[in-house]
Design goal:
The protein has 15 helices and 16 strands. By secondary structure, it is α/β, with parallel strands linked by helices. It folds into two domains: 5-76 and 377-418, Urease, subunit C, domain 1; 79-367, Alpha-Beta Barrel (TIM Barrel). The strands form two sheets. Strands 1, 2, 3, 4, 5, 14, 15 and 16 form an eight-stranded mixed beta sheet that branches. An eight-stranded parallel beta sheet has the order 6-7-8-9-10-11-12-13. Strand 7 (145-151), helix 5 and strand 8 form a beta-alpha-beta unit. The longest helix has 18 residues, at 198-215. The structure holds zinc ion. Zinc ion binds at residues 82, 84, 253, 328.
């Protein structure tokens, strides 16, 4: 074996070694730390992980890239498993109204909120959406993110815009170092013309959109915003069950604002993840743990909305829910691409330990995209998606918040970002 890249003398190598499945309870605190670690990479894959010197059967030559990990931390590439990456426009113009206390529904009535993003996305060309999302992906990569999920949902009943969003996500996944996983989320809001009869829109999603998305291979997952005033539990179930029949794996925006039973529904229909969960009931959390539904938490959104309400991460972890963390990057409720900041929020606001945070942002994020066999830990055979941080230990990233600690990012066995 001849290594393409070697990272050696790593002060703290967090491997996340363990079973290729969502980690729960105490497993979330087992981060597989190796001091004086060494990693070897060949053909995009990890071929050796250990301590001290490389074994003799791993050869190097003048083409081998040697990275010195002295004084550094190495982790698996971060996984941002819930974003609304592809969209037109931005909404900083609403900030002044929000600061004055104008309610979201009044901003919406004034043509703002999600509707303004829907308009901007409908009016943007493929190239404009691509360029804007690419800038975001570049930023994400610089923060150590190597895999990103991207949802449609700013076209709504304008199916061409939904398709355009998913095609942009797929094309970026091909062109950009970051792997982009596409999710169909036509059920993101009730379009104005279906306001008085949302069931008609549910029928359109089920009968026209989902079959087309599946036939054209535009998405891996199907997601629904299950919330008071958006889609009911029944409608959500209807859409996600149809998606399942067409091979789209179910995810759900659940119990973000009201305790509607989204967590219970996620367990009942076997969602891969239920996301937000700020108002999830105790029963729903228990059911999710029993059925192995991942709880994908988005504390950046809680921070930005300042509602004072937070997902109960401690309870979820104690009950055995595998917790993942994501930015929820979107132009309204959480306009940041910075996963490191989200990891600080998770620890400071949700009281997750640094080890739990690291697990949530790597292997559990990978599992919430059904990629736990390929990524999420630094183990022989897995993709060489690896981040070198210029910090003395992982805790430091969380503690020294709001700035970028990335030194290098390796994606598919290539150095794609260097400070
Ligand atoms: Zn979202």
């Amino acid at each position: 074996m001849k290594a393409d890249i070697i990272i050696k003398n790593i002060d703290k190598l967090y491997t996340l070694k363990g079973p290729n499945r969502p980690r729960v309870k105490d497993e979330m605190r087992q981060v597989g730390l190796i001091e004086d670690g060494v990693v070897a990479i060949e053909d995009g894959k990890i071929i050796y992980v250990g301590q001290g010197q490389l074994p003799e059967d791993i050869k190097t030559d003048e083409t081998t890239v040697i990275i010195d990990g002295r004084g550094k931390v190495v982790t698996p590439g971060l996984v941002d498993s819930h974003t609304h990456l592809v969209h037109g426009g931005s909404r900083e113009n609403e900030l002044a109204m929000k600061l004055k206390g104008v309610k979201y529904l009044d901003i919406l009535a004034a043509g703002g909120g999600i509707l303004s993003t829907v308009n901007a996305t409908r009016n943007a060309t493929f190239q404009e959406l691509y360029d804007q999302a690419k800038k975001s992906l570049d930023r994400m990569l610089s923060y150590g993110v190597t895999t990103v999920e991207a949802k449609s949902g700013y076209g709504l009943d304008d199916f061409d815009t939904e398709i355009k969003q998913m095609e942009v996500a797929i094309k970026l996944g091909e062109d950009h170092p970051i792997d982009v996983i596409s999710t169909f989320m036509g059920a993101h809001a009730i379009p104005s013309r279906y306001k008085d009869n949302p069931d008609l829109f549910v029928d359109v999603i089920k009968n026209e959109m989902i079959p087309e998305v599946a036939k054209r291979g535009l998405a891996k997952f199907c997601d629904v915003f299950c919330e008071k005033g958006v889609f009911t539990v029944e409608q959500t179930k209807d859409i996600l069950e149809t998606g399942k029949q067409w091979g789209l794996l179910p995810k759900v925006h659940a119990d973000e604002i009201e305790t509607l039973g989204g967590a219970e529904l996620a367990a009942e229909i076997g969602c891969v993840s239920a996301d937000h969960l700020i108002a999830a009931s105790d029963k729903g959390i228990k059911m999710m743990a029993e059925k192995g539904v991942i709880g994908n938490l988005l504390p950046g959104t809680s921070f930005n909305l300042q509602s004072g309400k937070l997902a109960n991460a401690r309870k979820m972890i104690e009950e055995g829910v595998a917790v993942a963390l994501s930015t929820d990057y979107n132009p309204g409720s959480c306009p940041t691409e910075n996963m490191q900041l989200i990891m600080s929020f998770a620890s400071i606001m949700l009281k997750m330990t640094p080890e739990e945070v690291l697990t949530a942002a790597t292997i559990n994020g990978a599992a919430s995209l059904k990629l736990e066999e390929e990524i999420g830990s630094i183990e022989v055979g897995k993709k060489a998606d690896i981040v070198v941080f210029d910090v003395p230990n992982f805790e430091y990233i969380i503690y020294h918040f709001g700035v970028n600690h990335t030194d290098k990012v390796i994606k598919d066995g290539k150095v794609v970002f260097s400070k």
